[in-house]
Amino acid sequence: MRIVVRLIFAAVTGLLLLVALVGAGNAQQSPYQSTVGLKPSSGAAGSSFTISWNFYPCKGPVSFTWSGAPLASANASPQVPSGQVTATVPGNATPGSYPVSGSCTNARTGGPLTGSATFRVTGTVTTVPPTTKVPPTTKPTVPVTTPTRPGTTTTPTTPTTPVTTTTPPTTTPPSTTDSPPPSTDVPAPSSTPAGPNDLILDRPSVQPGDRLSATGKGCVPGKAVTLTSDGERVGSAYADDTGAFTTAVEFTRIEAGRHTIVADCGVRLTGAVEQVVTSSSGGHGGTLVVLVFFVLAGITVLRFP
């Protein structure tokens, strides 16, 4: 019996103690919350900072002020009692301490819920004007392959007929000394190395029908190259991405002598070539005519004694 009484007394005592603890806890916990936090809590005028807030129970938006002037706002409700919002320190704020306050309407009582924190202005933000960036210069890509004179009309070379000079018959006995044929020796190329503005030709002299090639460098990359001689166009090409070119040279007229070739490709390159024109006439031709004359004269004498 005593054990039962003791158990009942212990149970009642524990229940009373639990009720007292719960009552004390409820008495210490406030049903309403209204706090404002700043991060960072100091900075220069014009700088940014974050406002963290907790308002419960809040109905409608939370409005924040800087020394009474509107600063920022955030949406809140009993289901969303806290959050963060970014704000900017007024640019005209002088160094000192300023209150940042937030307020909203209590959803239960209809009264205001307010909270505040202090922000300390330390100076003024110096704004540096943005540096103007100059866009990079893009060098146009020049094809490596040298085109072969696109759109150029080639003037056909007129074949040159060898000129034969006929010596009139004469009674002078034939000469036993034959005249040597004109020299066709090709002059030796110059041993002087080509300069930066020289047009290099693959042979120092040409005869009618010979092929002639010209090579140059130092031109503007991708530039059209025009070759002229004595004012007439004798070739064309395009400079590659290194400023070099190679093209054929074709003369429209055959004139014996030295001819200067000029290549215009942004710079002027010059070279010279000798045109050699050989004649089929000579001592053998004159001797042959005289012999034929005497043979015909002998036949005439024999037929008419």
Descriptive account of the structure:
Among the domains are: 32-124, Immunoglobulin-like, CATH 2.60.40.3880; 200-275, Immunoglobulin-like. It has helices at 2-28, 283-303; strands at 33-39, 42-45, 48-56, 58-66, 69-74, 82-88, 96-106, 112-124, 200-201, 205-206, 212-216, 224-229, 232-238, 245-249, 257-264, 268-275. With 305 residues, it is α+β, with helices and mostly antiparallel strands. Residues 21-29, 171-192 and 280-290 have low confidence and may be disordered. The radius of gyration is 56 Å and the shape is rod-shaped. Helix content is 16%, strand content 36%. Strand 15 and strand 16 form a beta hairpin. The strands form four sheets. The protein has a five-stranded mixed β-sheet, with no helix packed on it. Strands 10-16-15-12-13 form a five-stranded mixed β-sheet, with no helix packed on it. Strands 1-3-6 form a three-stranded antiparallel β-sheet, with no helix packed on it.
Q: What is the average per-residue confidence, as pLDDT, rounded to a whole number? A: 75
CATH class of the domain at 32-124: Mainly Beta
Number of strands: 16
Integer-rounded radius of gyration: 56 Å
- Morphology call: rod-shaped
Q: Enumerate the spans where pLDDT stays under 50 for 5 or more consecutive residues.
A: 21-29, 171-192, 280-290
Helix and strand sequence: HEEEEEEEEEEEEEEEEH
Q: Biggest sheet: strands side by side, in what order? A: 2-8-7-4-5
CATH topology (fold) name of the domain at 32-124:
Immunoglobulin-like
Largest beta sheet, briefly? 5 strands, mixed
- How much helix, percentage-wise, in residues? 10-25%
Q: At CATH's second level, what is the architecture of the domain at 32-124? A: Sandwich
Secondary-structure-based class equals alpha+beta
Distance between the termini: 198 Å
